Automatic annotation (TrEMBL):
Keyword Nucleotide-binding part of the UniProt annotation: yes
Record-linked Gene3D superfamilies: Phosphorylase Kinase, domain 1, Transferase(Phosphotransferase) domain 1
Enzyme Commission number: 2.7.-.-
Source superkingdom: Eukaryota
CDD domains: STKc_IRAK
Catalyzed reactions per annotation: L-seryl-[protein] + ATP = O-phospho-L-seryl-[protein] + ADP + H(+); L-threonyl-[protein] + ATP = O-phospho-L-threonyl-[protein] + ADP + H(+)
Record has Methyltransferase as a keyword: no
Membrane topology listed for this record: Single-pass type I membrane protein
InterPro entries the UniProt entry points to: Kinase-like_dom_sf, Prot_kinase_dom, Ser-Thr/Tyr_kinase_cat_dom, Ser/Thr_kinase_AS, WAK-like
Organism: Rosa chinensis
Identification of the protein by name: Putative transferase, protein kinase RLK-Pelle-WAK family
Protein keywords: ATP-binding, Kinase, Magnesium, Membrane, Metal-binding, Nucleotide-binding, Serine/threonine-protein kinase, Signal, Transferase, Transmembrane, Transmembrane helix
Principal cellular location given in the protein's record: membrane
Length: 374
């Protein structure tokens, strides 16, 4: 009965249709996961959020895993659960979190992932972890890895995949501080000739949500590009995507704040101290201009993730080979059309109740794994 209620029949249909890579997804028995998590002991909790609770577990073969116990309250969340299984079973990329399997025999369905020990990128950006500061080279590498994974999802997966909730809390760091993109509950795979996805409800997170998608309900690959642009600005500035410490004139959303600062030639006033200390002004300006292009309010004018990846790889190469003083005076800001900044935080106040869009209202929601590790 629980198997049926938890989407077992729906998952079986997906399995038989060939949409799920059966070899990659294991159906765990409930007793296996209860044993691995010491009966979901509170001491094993890695993190809690709107989607459920994540526990640290150890399988019988000694593998350390993360077990997400879903907080299912309606059928839409159940479909997100099944959707994540289907999507992740199709993905094979070093910078995407690996789904090992699921369990449908329990009161609520369970997902089993590889364990990612070093928590979220957000933790390192905003809390400035003292024993492991994010260097400029690390920030460039992390940005390049995220971009490469998104490029893979858009162009190299068996079907194009839109993530639809890219944010720094959904970027995890493994034992070698390599990135892993997580949380594919609202992701969608589309037909190769399809250019957009029309949704009845807007899904996403304030501060990262593409304004064009917010207004049209049409999600495109360029909507992921916008969200990536916000993460890139986070890496540049060390600031949160939404901050009520900033005035409305400055921009409550980081995207607006960044665009206004660029327009006023105040970039170096908002760049993180670690970045200023270690990065060349030339490269900082190049990355900032790339971020501004990603945040263009016109999706067609944003670069593709393939183009973003290529540009970041070039910057990484110049960082490795550059030596001596830079001639900063030769560097100019790229002149792009400045559209009226669209501040999601302030604009959403009049429409939030009408939207009732789940994740959109929960930008404090924690991701798959928290920073805490045992």
């Amino acid at each position: 009965m629980l198997f049926k209620r938890n989407g077992g029949l729906l998952l079986e249909q997906q399995l038989s249709s060939g949409e799920v890579n059966v070899e990659k997804i294991k159906l765990f028995k409930s007793h296996e996961l209860e044993k691995s998590t010491d009966n979901f002991n509170m001491d094993r909790i890695l993190g809690q959020g709107g989607q459920g609770t994540v526990y640290k577990g150890m399988l019988e073969d000694g593998r350390i895993v993360a077990v997400k116990k879903s907080k299912i309250v309606d059928e839409s969340q159940l479909s997100e659960f099944i959707n994540e299984v289907v999507i992740l079973s199709q993905i094979n990329h070093r910078n995407v979190v690996q789904l090992l399997g699921c369990c449908l025999e329990t009161e609520v369905p369970l997902l089993v992932y590889e364990f990612i020990p070093n928590g979220t990128l957000s933790k390192y950006i905003t809390e400035q972890v003292e024993d492991f500061p994010l260097t400029w080279k690390m920030r460039l590498r992390i940005a390049t890895e995220i971009a490469g994974a998104l490029s893979y999802l858009h162009y190299a997966a068996s079907f194009p995949i839109y993530h639809r909730d890219i944010k720094s809390t959904n970027i995890l760091l493994d034992d070698k501080y390599r990135t892993k993109i997580a949380d594919f509950g609202t992701s969608r795979s589309i037909a190769i000739d399809q250019t957009h996805l029309t949704t009845s409800l807007v899904h996403g997170t304030f501060g990262y949500l593409d304004p064009e998608y917010f207004q049209s309900s049409q999600f495109t690959e360029k909507s992921d590009v916008y969200s990536f642009g916000v993460v890139l600005v986070e890496l540049l500035t060390g600031q949160k995507p939404i901050s009520f410490l900033r005035s409305e004139d400055e921009g409550r959303s980081l995207a607006t704040y960044f665009i206004i600062s660029m327009h006023k030639d105040r970039l170096f006033e908002i760049v993180d101290a670690q970045v200023l200390k270690e990065g060349s002004k030339e490269d900082i300006i190049i990355v900032a201009n790339l971020a501004r292009r990603c945040l263009n309010l016109n999706g067609r004018k944003r670069p593709t993730m393939r183009e973003v990846t290529s540009e970041l790889e070039v910057i990484q190469m110049t960082e490795k080979t550059s030596s001596g003083e830079q001639n900063y005076e030769e560097v100019e800001f790229v002149k792009t059309e400045l559209v009226e900044p669209w501040d999601i935080a302030s604009s959403s106040t009049g429409t939030g109740s009408a939207l009732d869009v789940g994740r959109v209202s929960s930008f404090h929601e924690i991701p798959l794994l928290s920073f805490k590790s045992r």
